[in-house]
Specification:
Elements (H helix, E strand, L loop, with lengths): L1 H27 L5 H4 L6 H11 L5 H13 L13 H36 L4 H15 L2 H15 L12 H30 L2 H8 L4 H12 L1 H25 L5 H10 L3 H29 L8
Helix pairs in contact: 1-13, 5-6, 5-8, 5-11, 5-13, 6-8, 7-8, 7-11, 8-11, 11-12, 11-13, 12-13
């Protein structure tokens, strides 16, 4: 177990290092942020002085090594726009994104799992076809469109919910639904596939022959045995929800790291973008590793190897 854990941590470190390198190169070749910071009509000498102060006159490889050295010391650099520590700026926005991701995950799991269970249990019926239409809609409608439709119906027409911003739980309802709709469809489809596969096995027929009800068989046996693929999807969807929050936060003016990422990309605030990407990458890797260990806890037949 220890060897496996160390190997996964090494893989995680390589993955995060690759992400840092790719984002650094892409952002630094997208344009010179100095031109966005100087006042209009600034002279070439003023531009060059500011470029030197920010360190952008150094070769790219020197900037890259300096950035890596700072990361090893816990220094993520300063925002070239806000002139504040980049890590502190991201941390100030992170609670809003976590709140939104948790709300979307509750919608995805709370709706997706029951829908998938019903589709598997009542397959071939009118109920399955109706639920399949709901799943297809959640999978097909783009996030920005579903967000706009929710605003038009529940905020503009019915006046039930606020249009945008943050506040009490009412402000969280529409962004959570818009962000969690695609994940809900994914959970529903994977739950149905896993349960249909389990329901066709011999132990299910034997349990039914012994007089157990279908509900008892599903709750006691089928759900546990079909949990492995669902856990895999859950681990991936947590990262997808954080990444997908970019669009939802823009539509609903939600002040999370998604909105911050858009603002930082537009202003070429390199270090803030790098911190955001690094954070999301770490969450992706951490949830993937956690899912691997959860497999063994749920199914004793699974053993982790080197």
């Amino acid at each position: 177990m220890l060897g496996y854990a160390l190997w996964r941590l090494l893989q995680a470190a390589i993955s995060v290092f690759g992400v840092i390198t790719i984002v650094f190169v892409v952002m630094h070749f997208s344009g010179d942020p100095t031109l966005l910071l100087v006042p209009q009509g600034a002279s070439a000498e003023q531009i060059e002085t500011l470029r030197h102060q920010l360190g952008f006159d150094q070769p790219v490889w020197v900037q890259y090594l300096a950035y890596l050295g700072g990361l090893l010391q816990g220094d993520f650099g300063q925002s070239v726009v806000q002139r504040a520590p980049a890590f502190g700026i991201v941390l100030s926005r992170l609670p809003y994104t976590i709140e939104l991701a948790i709300g979307a995950l509750i919608v995805a799991i709370g709706v997706g799992l029951p829908v998938g269970m019903l589709m598997a249990t009542y397959r071939g019926t009118a109920l399955e076809r109706a639920l399949a239409a709901v799943v297809l809609t959640g999978q097909s409608v783009p996030t920005f469109l579903s967000g706009i439709l929710l605003i038009m119906v529940f905020a503009v027409q019915l006046h039930w919910l606020p249009t945008s911003g943050v506040g009490d739980v009412r402000f969280l309802v529409m962004p959570s639904i818009a962000l969690g709709a695609l994940s809900m469809s994914t959970f529903a489809r994977m739950t149905r596939i896993a349960m249909v596969d389990e329901l066709g096995k011999d132990y299910v027929r034997a349990a039914l022959a012994r007089g157990l009800s279908m509900r008892a068989v599903v709750l006691r046996h089928v759900l546990r045995n079909s949990a492995i693929p669902v856990i895999t999807i859950a681990a991936l969807e947590i990262g997808n929800l954080l990444a997908g929050a970019v669009i939802v936060e823009t539509v609903f003016a939600w002040p999370g790291i998604g909105q911050l990422a858009i603002q930082s990309i537009q202003s070429r605030d390199f270090l803030v973008v790098q911190v955001i990407v690094l954070l999301i990458s770490f969450i992706y890797v951490a949830t993937s590793v956690a899912a691997d260990f959860a497999y063994a806890a749920i199914d004793p037949r699974i053993r982790l190897a080197r």
